[in-house]
């Protein structure tokens, strides 16, 4: 564990009792005061990695119940099944009201395994997204005025977006529902299976590229980690094909520097009202 | 409830105690003796629809723990959160060993809402799959010899596959990882949000089209129900883009007779060994 990275320090969990972990949600991972959903997922993923007999998240299904705020939290885990190659667990994150009442913020059902034990076969028809070189992409620091997605969390992330997908930042969204770009942690920490849980929910929402602004709260987010990522920058592509009835799906793909598809995710989110 | 349909009779659940339902897994929904995962999902979805304050599944995440067998089962539900427009619940299906021990077969986390209360806006870039007319497609009865996917369940389903995606049935898989076709219940029961949970896991696996035969056990399956389906036949498309490390994802889209994308799902499954 590289404790020199803020990601590792801020996802630390402390065993209080069997399967129960105390933690603290850092205000540095917030967007407009609310804790980022990908950071929460990594926190729950870390607790499950400690509680379960297998080390890596293979499939993590999260249902978001209420916004999480910076401050203390407790994660309760349950080992649902411990198998030979896969194990399944459940984890919930709770925070306290002023009167001491616990409120559940997010609940996760996850299956873990050992990515390093998988065979090397790759037979994929998926292609990495076409993204211009890093130095031709744009980050929050390049914007003439702060972007709508700007927030505390942007200081911790090294995100550079494909210029073709940031028209929304200058009032000209493409309408396609696509955002893609380079992703890294700003302090240079290399990706691992846990940090991929952050990566899938870190880009500005596709809703911006559809010409919608405002909050896009996640209802459900499932992530499949398919491979241990190679060191170096990641490429992330998120797309929305179906905005209907006030909800949209957002599909994310994460590719590593060795051109492997390392993570796939889909979330169901409430769409912002048309602006 | 149209009790003249076997689907409705076989997904009946009987309240035993608050949130606890007795049911019976019908042998008619099996494939090689194992109960179909989509039928199980519909059973759990029905129990949650009775337990939660909202009627329709919006997002259902299922982790499959062990194969289910025909016979008695008990479903235990928990209301995780009851909100104004959405509620979240959890459900587990248990079966009994000969010594009376309960074994959990599948656990589900789900968010429910009211599809009929959603606005009518549709802004989608997704297009229905190009499938030849029903009468130009092929079902199990058209095969010269029983198909590898044949099983009890095929008698209850009216599935006709696009000829372009059934080369595997005559030893010539396309290698693309695509299967698509028409879907209905054989007794003519129209689709509803619950039956869509069956539909997403009812076609022969994409692995067949990749030239692999054998069992493709589901690890995780998340389904989003996006719209109440119009009466009439459904079109289903399933695709696999990434087979790697012994696992594959299978994405399903379900379109109704009114050309609405009514369900989207993704599962992570173990790949069969190369044949």
From TrEMBL, chains A, B:
<dbReference type="Pfam" id="PF13622">
    <property type="entry name" value="4HBT_3"/>
</dbReference>
<feature type="domain" description="Acyl-CoA thioesterase-like C-terminal">
    <location>
        <begin position="145"/>
        <end position="269"/>
    </location>
</feature>
<dbReference type="InterPro" id="IPR042171">
    <property type="entry name" value="Acyl-CoA_hotdog"/>
</dbReference>
<protein>
    <submittedName>
        <fullName>TesB-like acyl-CoA thioesterase 3</fullName>
    </submittedName>
</protein>
<dbReference type="InterPro" id="IPR029069">
    <property type="entry name" value="HotDog_dom_sf"/>
</dbReference>
<dbReference type="Pfam" id="PF20789">
    <property type="entry name" value="4HBT_3C"/>
</dbReference>
<feature type="domain" description="Acyl-CoA thioesterase-like N-terminal HotDog">
    <location>
        <begin position="26"/>
        <end position="112"/>
    </location>
</feature>
<dbReference type="InterPro" id="IPR049449">
    <property type="entry name" value="TesB_ACOT8-like_N"/>
</dbReference>
<dbReference type="InterPro" id="IPR052389">
    <property type="entry name" value="Sec_Metab_Biosynth-Assoc"/>
</dbReference>
<dbReference type="InterPro" id="IPR049450">
    <property type="entry name" value="ACOT8-like_C"/>
</dbReference>
């Amino acid at each position: 564990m590289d404790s020199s990275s803020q990601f590792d320090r801020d996802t630390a969990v402390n065993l209080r009792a069997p399967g129960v972990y105390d933690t603290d949600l850092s205000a540095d991972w917030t967007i407009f005061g609310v804790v980022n959903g990908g950071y929460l997922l990594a926190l729950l993923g870390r607790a499950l990695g400690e509680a379960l007999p297998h080390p890596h998240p293979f499939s993590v299904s999260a249902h978001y119940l209420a916004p999480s705020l910076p401050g203390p939290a407790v994660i309760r885990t349950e080992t649902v099944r411990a198998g030979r190659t896969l194990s399944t667990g459940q984890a919930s994150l709770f925070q306290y009201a002023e009167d001491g009442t616990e409120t559940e913020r997010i609940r996760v059902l996850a299956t873990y395994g050992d990515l390093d034990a998988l065979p090397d076969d790759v037979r994929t028809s998926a292609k990495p997204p076409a993204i211009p070189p890093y130095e031709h992409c744009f980050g929050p620091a390049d914007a003439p005025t702060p972007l709508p997605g700007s927030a505390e969390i942007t200081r911790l992330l090294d995100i550079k977006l494909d210029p073709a997908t940031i028209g929304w930042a200058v009032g000209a969204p493409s309408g396609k529902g696509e955002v893609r770009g380079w992703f890294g942690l700003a302090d240079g920490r290399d990706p691992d299976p846990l940090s991929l849980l952050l990566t899938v929910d870190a880009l500005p929402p596709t809703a911006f590229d559809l010409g919608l602004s405002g909050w896009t709260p996640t209802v459900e987010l499932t992530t499949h980690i398919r491979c241990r990522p190679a060191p170096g920058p990641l490429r992330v592509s998120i797309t929305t094909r179906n905005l209907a009835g006030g909800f949209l799906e957002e599909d994310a793909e994460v590719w590593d520097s060795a051109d492997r598809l390392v993570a796939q995710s889909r979330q169901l989110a409430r769409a912002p009202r048309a602006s």
